[in-house]
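Please check what follows.
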Amino acid sequence: MHSFFLRRWFVPAVIFLVLEACPVEAHAQGTSQTETVATAASLPDAPGAQQTQTPVSKSQQDEAAEELKREEKQRILGVVPNFNTVNSGDAAALTPKQKLHLFWKSSTDPFVFVAAAADAGISQAEDDFPGYGQGAEGYFKRFGASYADTFDGNLWGNAILPIVLHEDPRYFRKGTGPVMGRILYAAKTNVWSRRDNGTWGPNYANIAGNFIAGGISNLYYPSSDRGPGLTVQRALTVTAEGALGSLLVEFWPDVSHKLFKKKN
């Protein structure tokens, strides 16, 4: 998702929702309300260089397919897609085909286009990327750039590189433990991810994907908004915003429980 839209709506929303979730988590320890996801308080060590991808059997493929079907029904507030979140620590590894399917599903959901349209409107109202101009032409250029940022980031960070590097592009929700521990876990997953063989290590796919997408954006941004410095800035900004997105995903079930409890 484009950084301008995130700064104005998404980031404040994440902070608010995490603060809302904290009281719930503080009183939920030791009960059955919270999902049991991760059994360790910290992430495992990175796999050694000699480790390779664990072959995926037919039964594992079926299990992964069933998990994907459940994930594709997950939405925050019934609108925002949450397809890349796993609520089970022992989920089967995805095949390359399933990773591509998840990328396509996440990149073509109607909400992605709505978010890009809103981002383009805000960007045009504040005259971001002035090289695009104003009017309908300027708006659609901004819309195309916003969607291209999302698509490219997903393609490289959630599909191509995870397939090549045998990394799992999904977020494995912790779900239990002290609030601060869960916050640190969520932030850390943007640079430390699960492998297809069940071990954990550096999240090369996410980091490299952000830089590759930032480099590709130089092809369609105005000349005044191109260059190595801006590419690095965009990549680091998207990586930081990814940590905030992980916070939202980690604590949303807690927030949702609290909201529905109040409603009832």
